[in-house]
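User: quick one - fold this with adenosine monophosphate bound?
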Amino acid sequence: MHTLLTNAPQVAAAFIRRGEVVAFPTETVFGVGADAFSEVAVRKIFAAKGRPADNPLIVHLADLDQLDRVAARVPEVAQRLIDAFFPGPLTLILPRHADVPRVVTGGLDTVGVRMPRHEVAEAFMRACGRPVAAPSANQSGRPSPTTWQAAYEDLEGRVACILQDDRTEAGLESTVVDCTGAAPLVLRPGAVSLERLQTVLPATRLADADAPDTARSPGTRYRHYAPRARVLLIDDPAEATPGQGSAYLGLHPPPELHAFRVHTLCQDVETYARELFHFFRRCDAAGIKAIYCEKVPPEGLGLALMDRLRRAAQG
Ligand code: AMP
Ligand code: MG
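Assistant: Sure. Structure tokens for the protein plus adenosine monophosphate:
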């Protein structure tokens, strides 16, 4: 399949309306989407990514009028979070509307819904004229794409079109919050911090990564975000071993920063989060064997960053 590269949201949206698959930018990472109501189109996403069928997709909305078409109802807690954080990098798990094919939700009776806060994404989705089901635009297991080039690297020849844009702003995926239980439950930490959610709904808590709760977010079971190189998490920059096969990413410099073949120092946790997946892909392109990543305190955005670092290090 030829993959068309375009800057025009309308051109990309025409492919969605024809039942094809398109990679597009959002404020978190690039997504790869299809008509959320078309089972045939959505299956093409799983095929393009090599994604396990039980890993659900997020349904993206251009505006809130579309919400009732994908969710059977909107619980009170969900409405509070919508009022506070939509549009934005927050995905809410809601009861699935019968019109949403089960292939979208990995067989679940719930559906993940979000409304991106991103000019190009919004123009694209408006032109699609329907909700767009989309996971991240990487090959399953690989680091999420934060540039259109990364999406091209993983999906060229496998999708009809890539909507080009600048590097994504957050660099990490959305926060996923289950709103179907008594209290909101964070299934995946992300760009909206737990602390910010708790300012709106103090009862919000974090799902225990090892508890049966995670059965509700099947995606978190899989190996994720991993570069080909080994990822080593360190508390102290001095623990990193410099060399031609080594890379360093962190907030503080190791003793011989320039002896690492690839290295980036980040001024804060936000920059670290934005750099992470891009840095992993740079390391793979350079043939790096070991990537040393400095740990950060698991608070604010640091919680999401540590989650991605841990999963990458498991790889
Ligand atoms: P991605 O956009 O690649 O991060 O993939 C979407 C992720 O959203 C999945 O891996 C799940 O973790 C989460 N998700 C989507 N829909 C649901 C759902 N119905 N229940 C629980 N988690 C979901
Ligand atoms: Mg993903």
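One thing worth noting: The domain at 4-216 is CATH 3.90.870.10 (DHBP synthase).
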